[in-house]
Each structure stands twice: as C-alpha cells, then as structure tokens.
C-alpha cells in the first residue's frame, strides 16, 4: 500500500542510492532489455545472488554499449570507480593494482551502472584468499553433444564429488553447458583444490574416453564434453549463480534442482523469466548450499616411477 493518497503520483521506490546514468540504454537489443531492466532484475534477485557475489574478488565482463558493442574482461579497479565498489588488495599480488569486490546491493547497482553484464567471482573470499570455499566444475559440450549427455556428465561429476565427501549442486551456465558447484569449508589451499579437480576430470576422461576430455585441445572436443577444471586455480573465476550473460537471449546462470535438468536447457532461464521462476519456487534447490560445505581431504596420488 502506497502512502500519499489517490491524488499523489505513486512514489518511486527509494530502493536505489546508486544513480543510473542512461537508464534507457539498450543492453540486450534482441529482448529490448535496458540498463534499468538489468537494475530491476538484480534488485529482485538480490537476496539469492548476494552470497555468491559479496565479499569475494570479482572479474567483470563490461559492455558499455550492450552485448553487441565492445567488451572487456576487467579484473582490476579503474579510474573513477564507484565508491560503492570495494577496492581489495590481493595479499600475494606484487603490483599495487587494486582488485574489486562488493558488499551490498549498492555495490551490485554500481556494477550495473558500470555496464558489468557478467559477474565472475573467485572461488575464495577476501577474508581468506588462499583457501577456496567453492569448487566449480565447468562442463563444456563439444559440437554434436546431446543435452542428455551433458546431464549425465554433470551427474557423474556429482557422484565423484560425493565419493570425496563433497556435495555437488548444479546450475545452468546461461551458455552451452552446466556448472557443478561444490561448497567447501575453506581449509585446503588452491594447489590442493586444483589437484583434486584435475584428478577428477582426468579420471572421467580415462574411464570414458569417448564421452569426456580433460584438456582444452579443441580437436579432441568434437562429440565430447570437456570437463573444465581450470576454473579451480588461484585467480581464475567462473560466472556467478544468477549472473546475467552478455549473450543474445539474455540468459542467466541459474541454480536448479538435479531433477529439473531434463526439462530445461543451458540457456532456458533468462532475465525475463527468472523473477517468475523464483516467485513460484516452493523450495530453493540451493537452499542447503552453504550448510553442505565440507573440507576437502585429498592427497594427490604420487606419480609412479617408471
Ligand atoms: P558455457 O556454458 O558457454 O561454456 P561458461 O560460463 O562456462 O559458459 P566458458 O567459456 O566455459 O563459459 O568459461 C569461461 C570462463 O572463463 C568464465 O566462467 C570466466 O570466469 C572466464 N573468462 C571469461 N572470459 C574471460 C577472459 N576474457 N579472460 C579470462 N577469463 C575469462
Ligand atoms: Mn563452460
Ligand atoms: Mn570452460
């Protein structure tokens, strides 16, 4: 119920303290989605996206002219950056260049204002840069791979994570594939997490060489799924849950339930249909994401001497 009586203009919601310049600028021309439309989307999903984008170093895909214009992948602070964006210093970086993080909705709105059409967090937080709290296994289907095969690949990743005592959650990438994401209690360091994810990907490729590859050699990917474990290295990023993608169709990376996968595709959820999906959800399939965190306990197998 709005105050002010029937004669008064409905007041604009005082939601945003970050002013948007050029709110009518078109970011996704195919869908007619503007900068203001992007701000509205993030305001709506804020409670759900917050745990995935706050308090961690971020890389941004910035597209000031929308998805058809120039784009740059930005990992550091820039001149004139909003005061709502936190400048953070990588304790291991030699250069003085600041990296960026956000702490609240104003920060997210400042990212919108700076035309960040994709948000790519690290798998660790600014509270503990060197001990990841998230694993992301990125399944990249090569040409000709059926969606059912991508689902099967994700389920196999989930099973192998489970064998290691970790719980895998799945989200669409908003592009072509799926991401299986496992919460970690920050304890193992980056080299240990990378070694674990590499071993997982290599075991899948060794056990099913017709279905999976673990190296990025393009020629080997036709008809196979790349189990891309390289998101799990210090300084690498993966697109955040609920982040928009700077691609035609305005898809978002959407957390889903394992039982939903056969009813959707990797770009099924979009900026347009997401608010209705979230309203209709009786239970968030990622509700237990953070409580499911466990420490990684992995000793890389010693290379056999020949
Ligand atoms: P898809 O399902 O289409 O594969 P995706 O998000 O998984 O979608 P990938 O190409 O598999 O896309 O992953 C690329 C990853 O590399 C992104 O998640 C991002 O964090 C990172 N990345 C993207 N662009 C750059 C860039 N220009 N420089 C460095 N890293 C990037
Ligand atoms: Mn991918
Ligand atoms: Mn990839």
UniProtKB/TrEMBL annotation:
Please state what the protein is called.
Answer: DNA ligase (ATP)
| Protein keywords | ATP-binding, DNA damage, DNA recombination, DNA repair, DNA-binding, DNA-directed DNA polymerase, Exonuclease, Hydrolase, Ligase, Manganese, Metal-binding, Multifunctional enzyme, Nuclease, Nucleotide-binding, Nucleotidyltransferase, Transferase
Q: GO molecular function, one example?
A: ligase activity
Organism ancestry: Bacteria, Pseudomonadati, Pseudomonadota, Alphaproteobacteria, Rhodobacterales
Provide the species name.
Answer: Paracoccus acridae
Indicate yes or no for the key word Membrane. no
């Amino acid at each position: 119920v709005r105050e002010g009586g029937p004669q008064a203009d409905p007041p604009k919601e005082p939601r945003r303290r970050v002013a948007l310049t050029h709110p009518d600028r078109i970011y996704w021309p195919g869908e007619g989605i503007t900068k203001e439309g992007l701000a509205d989307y993030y305001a709506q999903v804020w409670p759900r996206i917050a745990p995935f984008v706050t308090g961690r170093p971020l890389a941004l895909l910035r597209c000031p002219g929308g998805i058809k214009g120039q784009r740059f992948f930005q990992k550091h602070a820039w001149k004139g950056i909003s005061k709502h964006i936190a400048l953070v210093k990588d304790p291991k970086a030699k250069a003085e260049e600041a990296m960026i993080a956000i702490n609240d909705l104003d920060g997210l709105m400042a990212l919108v204002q700076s035309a960040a059409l994709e948000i790519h967090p690290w798998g660790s937080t600014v509270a503990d840069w060197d001990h990841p709290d998230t694993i992301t296994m990125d399944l990249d289907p090569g040409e000709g791979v059926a969606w059912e095969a991508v689902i099967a690949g994700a389920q196999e990743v989930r099973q192998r994570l489970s064998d290691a005592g970790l719980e895998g959650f799945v989200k669409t990438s908003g592009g072509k594939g799926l991401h299986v994401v496992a919460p970690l209690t920050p304890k193992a360091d980056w080299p240990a997490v990378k070694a674990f994810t590499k071993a997982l990907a290599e075991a899948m490729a060794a056990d099913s060489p017709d279905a999976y590859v673990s190296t990025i050699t393009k020629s080997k990917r036709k008809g196979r799924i790349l189990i891309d474990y390289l998101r799990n290295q210090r300084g690498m990023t993966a697109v955040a849950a609920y982040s928009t993608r700077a691609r035609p169709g305005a898809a978002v990376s959407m957390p889903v339930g394992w039982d939903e996968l056969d009813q959707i595709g990797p770009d099924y959820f979009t900026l347009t249909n997401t608010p209705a999906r979230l309203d209709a959800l009786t239970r968030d399939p990622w509700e237990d994401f953070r409580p499911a965190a466990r420490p990684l306990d992995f000793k890389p197998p010693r290379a056999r001497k020949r």
